[in-house]
């Protein structure tokens, strides 16, 4: 069987050294749509090295290594093709603000393997630590088509919860550039699904799609800019479930519900041109 759940869960963590600097941070920010308008002081916090701060979702690409979806495919006990996998969800917990420049150790291992019958779900956890201690912990949930059926635990339901019924407190719209995926992939996610029309067709899509983690970063930026006055250091945790694809050139609608004193925002992201089709669901940003 291509997935050996027991082997994946009992394997020793894979440890690698990562490093990044202001150029990596700036490229990531541009990849998720920062810098428009280019001279806006609020955008210069993401693009100008003398004012730079780091959006916490940069953690998903720090060090330029493979994102969780691709890294999970090289985990011990896992032998599946890239065209079989989808990114199901992402969770991030910040222990400290992410520095503009850093050198750290990233330890990754599969911490859960669920049997959905016709598919498998793997959870890859990465813990990042530098000389001063823990920096962040992040988890990628990877959906693998056609690899269930070994009789394992089914795990939590994959059905997204509906957004709150009441009107959102804030709504932000983001126009995705036609070349957004081509720019974002320069931060390290070279999956051809996001650039090669022929590969996208083999994976069941009419054309290349935007990286889920690009939408993930753009949604967090919208929350930080709208609710936290751009203060990235207030973010404590961020989670989402990928509910649908985004095509470059579309407009995303980011709705936020943030009750006073709650210390968190619930977020829903949808594609405007496709009748507000859900893109990110079960999304929560916790902040100080």
Can I get a quick summary?
The protein is of the alpha+beta class.
Keywords:
ten-stranded antiparallel beta sheet, globular, Thiol Ester Dehydrase, Chain A, 33% strand, 288 residues, alpha+beta
Describe this structure in words.
It contains seven helices and ten strands. By secondary structure, it is α+β, with helices and mostly antiparallel strands. The protein has one domain: Hotdog Thioesterase (Thiol Ester Dehydrase, Chain A, Roll). Strands 1-3-4-5-2-7-10-9-8-6 form a ten-stranded antiparallel beta sheet. A hairpin with a 3-residue loop joins strand 3 and strand 4. The longest helix has 16 residues. The model has no long low-confidence stretch (mean pLDDT 92).
Q: Which sequence of SSEs, written as H and E, runs from N to C?
A: HEHHHEEEEEHHHEEEE
CATH architectural group: Roll
> Strand content of the residues, in percent?
25-35%
Measure the end-to-end span: 45 Å
From the 3D structure, determine the CATH topology. Answer: Thiol Ester Dehydrase, Chain A
Structural class: alpha+beta
Question: What do the pLDDT scores average to?
Answer: 92
Give a short account of the largest sheet: 10 strands, antiparallel
Q: So, the CATH homologous superfamily?
A: Hotdog Thioesterase
Instruction: Count every beta strand, where a strand is a DSSP E run of 2 or more residues.
Output: 10
Cα-atom radius of gyration: 18 Å
Helix percent reads: 10-25%
Topology (SSEs and partners):
Blueprint: H1 5-10, E1 14-20, H2 22-31, H3 41-47, H4 68-73, E2 85-94, E3 102-115, E4 119-130, E5 133-145, E6 170-175, H5 180-184, H6 197-202, H7 212-227, E7 235-242, E8 251-257, E9 264-271, E10 277-287
Antiparallel strand pairs: 1-3, 2-5, 2-7, 3-4, 4-5, 6-8, 7-10, 8-9, 9-10
């Amino acid at each position: 069987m291509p997935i050996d759940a027991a082997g994946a869960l009992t394997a020793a963590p894979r440890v690698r050294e990562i490093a990044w600097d202001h150029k990596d941070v700036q490229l990531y920010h541009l990849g998720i749509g920062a810098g428009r308008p280019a001279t806006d002081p609020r955008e210069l916090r993401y693009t100008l090295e003398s004012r730079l701060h780091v959006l916490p979702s940069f953690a998903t690409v720090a060090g330029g290594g493979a994102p969780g979806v691709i890294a999970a495919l090289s985990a011990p006990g896992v032998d599946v093709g890239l065209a079989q996998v989808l990114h199901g969800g992402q969770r991030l917990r910040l222990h400290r603000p992410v520095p503009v420049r850093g050198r750290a150790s990233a330890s990754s291992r599969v911490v859960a393997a669920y049997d959905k019958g016709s598919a498998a779900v793997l959870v890859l956890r990465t813990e990042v630590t530098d000389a001063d201690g823990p920096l962040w912990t992040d988890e990628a949930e990877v959906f693998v088509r056609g690899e269930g059926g070994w009789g394992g635990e089914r795990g939590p339901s994959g059905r997204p919860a509906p957004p709150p019924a009441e009107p959102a407190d804030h709504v932000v719209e983001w126009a995705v550039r036609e070349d957004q995926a081509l720019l974002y992939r320069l931060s390290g996610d070279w999956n051809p699904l996001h650039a090669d029309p022929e590969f996208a067709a083999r994976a069941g899509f009419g054309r290349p799609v935007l990286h889920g983690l690009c939408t993930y970063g753009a949604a967090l930026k919208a929350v930080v800019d709208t609710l936290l006055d751009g203060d990235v250091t207030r973010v404590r945790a961020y989670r989402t479930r990928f509910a649908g694809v985004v095509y470059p050139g579309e407009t995303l609608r980011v709705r936020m519900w943030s009750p006073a004193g709650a210390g968190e925002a619930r977020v829903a992201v949808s594609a405007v041109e496709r009748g507000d089709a859900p893109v990110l669901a079960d999304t929560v940003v916790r902040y100080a």
